[in-house]
Amino acid sequence: MSLAKNKNGRAKLTLPSGSAMNGVTARSQNAAQGSLDTAQLIFDSARQPVVMGVRGSTAVRQMLYKSGSFFIDMQIQPTPGSDSRVLIGQLHDSTKPNHGIGGVPVSLMLEGGTVSRNETNQAGEFDFGIHALGKLHLVFSIGENRTLMVAVPDGDSLGYS
Prior knowledge:
five-stranded mixed sheet
């Protein structure tokens, strides 16, 4: 396994065929030779100032991430009557704004192990229940040669711990 940056500063991960990284098994030699990109947080509602005198709840947290032409719009909210949370989101490709990105495998990872797997629907939407605190990531397998990783805020920064 090797990790290096290409000329654009993006991380490129090369794995031997059939190997695993953080619980995600490379599906083919093409996938193993692809790139691993980490999406950058460009908006977080938790970082916005609270407006005095305005009613409302700050329990719902909205975030927007970007990697190349891909945007990941996410929302995390508490599940009524429990300590768990729901993560819902949508994967967008800005080069194809009128088309959803359906059928993209997405995994919720906790401390490097897979907690749950899902697939985006025709509109690029996905959702997960979050029942544990810790270092969470979403991992999208886009095409045969690109993996996109998104850091999910932990329980402490969500204010639910």
